[in-house]
Amino acid sequence: MAKLFSKTMQRKLLVWMVPPLVYALVKVLFFTCKKKFYLPHNGSATPSIYAIWHGEMLMAAAAYKHYTKRETIDTIVSNHFDGELVAKLMQLFGGGTIRGSSSKGGVSALRGALKALQNGRDIGITPDGPRGPRHSVADGAAALAMMRKVPIITMNCKLSSYWSMKSWDQFCIPKPFSTIEFYFGDPFYVHELSLEEAKALIQKRLLEHAV
Question: What value does the mean pLDDT take over residues 84-104?
Answer without folding.
Answer: 86
